[in-house]
Design a protein that fits this description.
Layout lengths: L7 H6 L1 H11 L6 E2 L8 E2 L5 E2 L3 E5 L2 E4 L8 E5 L6 E4 L2 E4 L5 E10 L2 E5 L4 E3 L5 E3 L8 E3 L5 E13 L2 E5 L13 E4 L2 E4 L1 H9 L20 H7 L13 E2 L2 E4 L11 E4 L12 E2 L3 H7 L10 H17 L3 E6 L7 E6 L2 E7 H4 L6 H16 L12 H16 L3 H18 L19 H12 L10
Parallel strand pairs: 19-20, 22-24
Antiparallel strand pairs: 1-2, 3-15, 4-5, 6-7, 6-16, 8-15, 9-10, 9-14, 11-12, 13-14, 14-20, 16-17, 18-19, 21-23, 23-24
Helix pairs in contact: 6-8, 8-9, 8-10, 9-11, 10-11
């Protein structure tokens, strides 16, 4: 069974130990951490503010968030903004080498904050709101209680460490006494507030009403309401703000310091003659199916793991994960002699697919390159052949022994759910003539490949 999110209370009980593992391994926030019980994985969670974020430690004194140690003093307040020194009781974070996915960049005044998705900000209304629900219509609060307009909100990856602190570990009171911090001129909550909000326990402090129903930054709903700028790097007079680099073009070899990688940089131009996992018409119809949240960590982790795993066996392929694109499809093509495979975010977030289903899709796309005849005029294997060779050849090579049977069987069940057909090896009639076979035929083809039977006529 693929990894599934577990209850917040379950993860909260092992929160300190989980984040020690994350810190030791250099894993970013939201990296899945499997525990030995039936409740599923937890995720690395404690880090909220990017390294270098100025936090007020005393009168006129600011320190980088990662420099605070347990026992140090930080200036903290309640909702009344009655600032006073408080001793730090919790301080933890990720390494400076991690790449934090789904980082939210909040632009205001002449500066910004880079935070993880669940970081909580104090609004002018007195409520708290998660970073990944902020929009330009919201007003933040300065340490002296003045409203601060948001210029823009962006989402992407940030190549830097993240860190957070807390002044007390017990449940915050209704006034959040001692749990609000001055984070680069904006009031936001410490880790204790975030922890209790994430655990879903009865809260003595108000979160934004219906906040979970508000669109996530970068999602189709958010883009429809606030535009596509959230997927791009902010427009700046200078590329440096407070010494932290913001870019809109990503090249891992060029990154030497903290860098924001806008979501749109994952985009890949797929040529019109590329092979598709499903037809454009099917993909358009499935766009209305149920999907995981736009910033779901598990589906992206599954896919990045699978790409790394398959690259070891098929290194002569350029792999693309376009997680910001909501198209429900995957592609294979050859361009200038280079083989390409691309997976779109809309497909990997489809509720029917988990790790095994995505693995089957990836095997299908690789089989377009290595599945043999019959082929399209351009040399890539036909659709029915890619279905058959993907499970029969590609998956057998990638998954060892019982792993092959387990992954293939679960992937076939997930694909039956995806196509909305029974998981039945019975072969329907007809033929595909190199085009996409109907869903029932594709399921029968997968079963034939696992059982080492001949490819069904409906896939020919």
């Amino acid at each position: 069974m693929a990894l599934r999110p577990c209850s917040s209370a379950h993860c909260g009980g092992a929160d300190a130990e989980i984040n020690e593992i994350c810190k030791a391994e250099g894993w970013p926030v939201n990296h899945p951490v499997l525990t030995r019980d039936a409740q599923g994985p937890c995720t690395c969670s404690c880090s909220c503010l990017a390294h270098g974020t100025p936090v007020q430690a005393g009168e006129g004194v600011f320190r980088a968030i990662e420099s605070f140690l347990v026992g140090d003093y930080v200036l903290a307040a309640s909702r009344k903004l009655d600032w006073a020194p408080r001793q730090v009781e919790f301080s933890q974070g990720t390494t400076g080498a991690s790449r934090q996915k789904y980082t939210v960049l909040v632009m205001y005044q002449d500066t910004f904050l880079a935070v993880t998705s669940d970081h909580l900000f104090l609004l002018r209304s007195g409520a708290l709101k998660r970073a990944d629900r902020l929009n330009p219509a919201d007003e933040l609060v300065s340490p002296d209680g003045k409203p601060v307009a948001i210029k823009s909100v962006h989402i992407g990856d940030y190549t830097a460490g993240f860190h957070h602190i807390a002044t007390k570990k017990e449940t915050p009171d209704a006034d959040l006494t001692g749990h609000l911090l001055n984070t680069n001129g904006i009031v936001s909550a410490d880790y204790a507030v975030q922890l209790f909000a994430r655990q879903g326990e009865p809260s003595p402090y108000p979160l934004m009403e219906r906040m979970e129903r508000e669109p996530v930054v970068g999602s189709p709903e958010y883009v429809e309401r606030f535009g596509k700028d959230c997927l791009r790097a902010p427009v700046l007079d200078s590329s440096l703000i407070n010494g932290r680099l913001l870019v809109s073009v990503f090249n891992a070899a060029d990154i030497t310091g903290p860098t924001f990688v806008a979501a749109e940089t994952t985009a890949v131009d797929v040529p019109p003659d590329a092979c598709r996992f499903i037809s454009d018409e099917e993909a358009e119809a499935k766009a209305t199916d149920a999907h995981r949240p736009w910033n779901d960590p598990l589906s992206r982790e599954w896919t990045e793991y699978l790409i790394d795993h398959h690259r070891a066996f098929f290194p002569n392929v350029q792999y693309h994960l376009d997680w910001a694109d909501n198209t429900v499809n995957a592609y294979a093509w050859v361009q200038n002699g280079v083989r390409h495979v691309a997976l779109k975010g809309g497909l990997i977030r489809h509720f029917a697919l988990e790790l095994e289903g995505i693995a089957l899709v990836l095997a299908h796309e690789l089989a377009h390159h290595y599945g043999g005849s019959p082929t399209f005029p351009g040399g890539l294997s036909c659709e029915g052949q890619a279905d058959y060779a993907g499970v029969n050849i590609i998956m057998r090579r990638v998954w060892f022994g019982e792993q092959y049977i387990t992954t293939a069987d679960r992937g076939i069940q997930q694909m039956a759910n995806f196509f909305g057909v029974p998981n039945d090896p019975t072969v329907p009639g007809g033929s595909s003539n190199c085009n996409h076979p109907p869903g029932a035929c594709r399921i029968a083809t997968y079963h034939a490949a696992v059982s080492l039977r001949r490819k069904p006529n409906c896939a020919v």
